[in-house]
Amino acid sequence: MIAELLTLIQSGVLVVLLLSVAVLIVGYLFWHGRWRTVAWLFGLPLLLGGFVLTIISGWSSFNYLSVHKKMPPFLPGDTPLVAVEVPTPRAWLDHIVVGIYDLDAGIAELKALTGQQAIRSGRHPKLGTETAVLRLGDDSFLELIAPQPDAEVTGDNQDLVVGYKELLSEHKTLTPFLWSIGTNDLRWLRRQITGTGFEMTPVIENSRELPDGSALAYLGASVAVGRPGFPFFVQWQAPSVAALAPAGAACTIYKWRVWTPNDVALQRLAEVLAVQVDVGEASTQALRAVLRCDGRTVVLGGTPG
User: Fold this and answer.
1) Residue whose C-alpha is closest to residue 133's, from 124, 125, 232, 4
2) Rounded to an integer, what distance in angstroms lies between the CA atom of residue 169 and that of residue 213?
3) Distance, C-alpha 85 to centroid of its chain
4) Helix (H) or strand (E) holding 47
5) Helices 34-68 and 2-30: crossing angle, nearest 10°?
6) Residues paired with 280 in a beta bridge
């Protein structure tokens, strides 16, 4: 209503300006003597007043539109601009990686502990591993990872496949050994982290193979210098792996605990990104996840030896 009124006032001011200019021109060209004087006495103040009103009404319109964040009326033929809502950058505990020597054994163990069925979520061909996930709330999930029995070994991935097989074969029970912080804007996250003195690796485009054979792309990075207990960072290019598991998860993360020799640095990192994690000091890395699953309390991992 106010915007329309301001537009009406501006239109009236324009009429006043045109009328005053017309009076001055007619008086100068066609009137003589005292009529010309009358024209000047009438037209000149009208013209000056019109200019003043133009300035006042223009400032009022600008002020109103600035405060109310509205655009002026569109002219015929104009294409209205569509406002695009940009998501607020944020970070969260994305997933906890739990190692096990055999995926079927891990799924069965997790079912016995939580009463919930983990969903097979595909493979990491470069690592020679296969995975399953259990959703932990809206954004987080537990990822079980085990050696892939029929993993293809090539010259490019031989060291990774052999290394992960040796590492995971040692875990006879579900054992957390990695964790990830997710973000919807990895460039923002890099600025947050590097601004506090940490160096980060370049962002790498990667993908994982889903059960249907399709690929799920994501961006990944980590802190440049290896620090035990530190997370890696991921930005999913589509709904994350958590979307493979049914919504309305029965399990949630009650407490996530990380022991590390770099406890002060990790605490600072968590505070910068506003990610909830309990940090403790220890000579070696140790991880512990406490889950709540339909009234059950499930503990995975433990304190260092």
Assistant:
1) 124
2) 26
3) 12
4) helix 34-68
5) 160
6) 259
